[in-house]
Structures
1.
Amino acid sequence: MNNVDKNKIMEIINNGNVTIMNEYAENLAKQYAPQEDREKKFKLTASQIRNILDDVQRMDKKAVGVRKHELLRPKLAYIAGRSDKNNYAIRELKEILDIAIRSIGDDYKKFENFRNFLEAIVGYHKFYSQVRE
């Protein structure tokens, strides 16, 4: 399963395309959300993604200006590396978010688009997940 679509990611980050963002975020969340407890080993748990979102929501314009958001890349790698090796969801999400983060630079508007995209993924994941932590 490969949901990494660089064109969609760039359209979301660079242009803030809300239609593509909602569609892409919802599709990702549907596939990543566990439907039963046994799926938590290879799908995305709310705590894994929420941890990243919390960091993103604490960042302000000054933090983006010094590219502090790029510190999320090793954090994502750590989360992916710590998870079960069969967890395609966290590894794929790491790849998607890595592309997005690298494209932000020090542009706060692009960062806001990234934050909105991540919030959409988390929101749809919460909606579609049948497993409570």
2.
Amino acid sequence: MEFLGDLGYLGLFLGSFLAATIVPFSSDFLIVGALIAGADHSLALISATAGNWLGGLTSYYIGRAGKWEWIEKWFRIKEETLLKQKERVDKYGALLALFTWLPFVGDVMAVALGFYRANFYKSAVYMLIGKALRYIFWILLYRSLGQGVLDFSFL
């Protein structure tokens, strides 16, 4: 993923997009790397959020298309996993989109929201809010810890 860093904000956008779809990695490292490299905080926030949001919307639309071949091929989500999400989608609906940034389950949530036809506009807005808050957290953490953010751990 080093080549993404060479592309600047476009690389941050593309990496964040891919992280929200088919490539299994965290875009958190990309935004921290961009900040350490001297990226403008506002532009990094916009680039990462836009890419990750559009990637999440892509996942939503793949779920909405409802083609199991696509879902299993590109997201490696089994039908049983998606069916387990149905209860949550029925209960919370588009609010689940606030959590599509979460590792491992976020992509499944985005696909499930589309598959079970959660309101697109509400899902899109909540998804944008959740993803933006994630990057705001990392930017604030970087502002407070500097490169020490690399030592940060939730454990």
3.
Amino acid sequence: MATAEINGGILKDVTFMGIRSVVGVIFILHGMGKFNPGFVNFISSLGLPPEMQIPIALAEVVPGILMIFGIFTRFSASLLSIVMIGAIFLVKGAQNITGEKAVEFDLILLAVSLLIIVAGPGRISIAHAIKKIPRFIH
């Protein structure tokens, strides 16, 4: 009986927190690299204006931070899913799952972001503690 309660409650909540935290840290670190001036040359080679450097970087860093804390988790995961779809199709051209221009890691991040959209933040989150944020957003 005690094992079922632990598995059903605490373990699930810790798992959601762990998944949110790992994905958040990955996106924060990846987004911080986009503040580098060299990233302007890369996005220019894709046909995007150089002014998009800051919005693209912030589109990964800010949702990553929010995801770690469990605030606006579904909204953040939705934004990160859009970023990953752009990375898969625009940046890498969805050419290979493995090898050169591989999209395997991008697909994993997209799948986890979609999982977070469906599952939500879990009970170990600021959104759950506050309870004033509408449920469909957190």
